[in-house]
Amino acid sequence: LKDSDQGVKDSDLGLKDSDLGSDQKVLGGEFFNKVCGHLKLLEKEYFGLEFRHHSGNYVWLELLKPLAKQIKYTHDLFFRFIVKFFPPDPGQLKRGLTRYLFALQIKQDLSNGGLTCNDNSAALLVSHILQSELGDYDEELDCQHLEMKQYVPNQEYLDHKIIKLHKRHRGVSPADSDIHLLEVARKLDMYGIRPHPAHDGEGMRINLAVTHSGVLVFQVWTLSTFYSY
Fold first, then answer.
1. What pTM, to 2 d.p., does this model score?
2. Which terminus, N or C, of the chain has the lesser number of Cβ atoms within 10 Å?
3. Which residues form the FERM domain (predicted)?
4. Whole-angstrom Cα distance, residue 30 to residue 37?
C-alpha cells in the first residue's frame, strides 16, 4: 500500500535491518506486529506481508515460522504490506484507519488492473476517489488531476463519465467517500480475489485465490472449482 501524502508507504516502515531476522528465533508474526505497531493499526487480522521468494513468486510471510528461514536466499528483500482478507461487508471494519487502508488497496488494484470491472463501475469508483482526494467538484481541478493521474487502465475514455459522477458527490467527506468506494468495490466479481500461481495434481498450471467464503481454483483465468469452508 502506498500513499505518500498520508505517510503510508510500502518502502518506509521505520524498521531497522535488525528487525529482519538477525535473531534466528524471531517469528514472522513478531515482525508483522512491529509493522502494524508502526502504522498504529489495530484491526491487523485483515492484512499481511508478502515478498518475492527466491523462486520468483510472491509469497505471504508466515506468522508462525521463523523470519530468518523464510527470507533465506532471498535477494533485494522488499516487503509489501497489503490487504490479505476482504470481508464480504466492509461495514465490518470498525476503524477509520482500516477503511482508509482498504481504500488504498482498492485504488492500487484498480490502477494495476488487478480489480477488473465494467466502465460504469470504474467511473463510479474513480468519482469517489476524486471526492476523497480533491473534495467537491471543480471543473479545472478535475480535468488537470485526471490528466496527471491514471486510476484505471484506458481512463481517458471515461473522463467525461467520471466528472459527471463526481458532481453528484458534493459535500461528502473523505472518510465517507472511502466507505462509498468500498461499498461499490465489494459488489464486483473480482473483489477480494488475488490469484496465486500453483500446479494441480497432474502438474497443470492453475491459479488459487483465498476469499472469505472459500478457495477458488482458476484455469486460464476461468473459475473451475470452488471449495467452500
1. 0.83
2. C
3. 1-229
4. 10
pLDDT in tens, 47-69: 999 998 888 888 899 999 999 99
User: Which grid cell is 91?
Assistant: 461495514
Name the pLDDT band for 184 (thresholds 50, 70, 90): very high
Q: How far is CA 4 from CA 1, 8, 12, 91, 161, in A?
A: 10, 6, 10, 26, 27
Degrees, nearest 5: CA angle 140-109-87: 115
CA distance 129 to 185: 12
**Is the distance from CB of 136 to CB of 101 less than 8 angstroms?**
no
Degrees, nearest 5: CA angle 184-185-186: 95
Is 130 buried (19+), middle (13-18) or exposed (0-12) by CB count in 10 A? buried
- CB-count exposure of residue 15 (10 Å: 0-12, 13-18, 19+): middle
